[in-house]
Amino acid sequence: xxxxxxxxxxxxxxxxxxxxxxxxxxxxxxxxxxxxxxxxxxxxxxxxxxxxxxxxxxxxxxxxxxxxxxxxxxxxxxxxxxxxxxxxxxxxxxxxxxxxxxxxxxxxxxxxxxxxxxxxxxxxxxxxxxxxxxxxxxxxxxxxxxxxxxxxxxxxxxxxxxxxxxxxxxxxxxxxxxxxxxxxxxxxxxxxxxxxxxxxxxxxxxxxxxxxxxxxxxxxxxxxxxxxxxxxxxxxxxxxxxxxxxxxxxxxxxxxxxxx
Length: 260
Prior knowledge:
Layout: E1 44-54, E2 59-72, E3 75-86, E4 100-101, E5 103-115, E6 120-132, E7 144-159, E8 163-176, E9 182-195, E10 202-211, E11 216-229, E12 232-241, E13 250-257
Antiparallel strand pairs: 1-2, 1-13, 2-3, 3-4, 3-5, 5-6, 6-7, 7-8, 8-9, 9-10, 10-11, 11-12, 12-13
């Protein structure tokens, strides 16, 4: 007797009647999702990412490793450790930020709407980042300097079979442990992608905007993703700041591996 095959990683929508409905969406590479929208129980994924940003007087190098998984249908969880390093300043007596292990990042995402007929998915999520003190001061003071609270909403829509759009938005509130002050910003991340039929390869544009009462910043991130095996993907792109608030051009890469 032949058993039903599991959904193929190349086509997450190929399912049997025993599996919940899931709509294929293109996931942006820079501000990625906690797990696929409509995640199915048992799914898992490792990510390793790298970014380099030109700051004129020095370069910033950001790296992260994250693990995401779905313990039950439509619920995704994630643990992440981001690290930021800086090159030596080119200016005499130049001042540059300290190297940092940024935070311990934990997140959850629940897809509460999956509409297969309209190729639409909607999810709510929450990210909590417990932030470390700078490495050059961590031995002289508290280990943690603050906490970031970030609830968010995701709305994703596929137009036909190959065009994808996604909106990821919500407030980011930072609590400083030293004085108890709270600073809140709002982020709006929008993306549009064209995915090649029969694969998970795509090209697209991600737009990341962060603003508060005083100012806002926007970065455009053209990007592409290519599958190099049935469970391994590589994404890459460039960062183009619109407002030139100190950052100049940058580049980033992400390696995605889904355990069998």
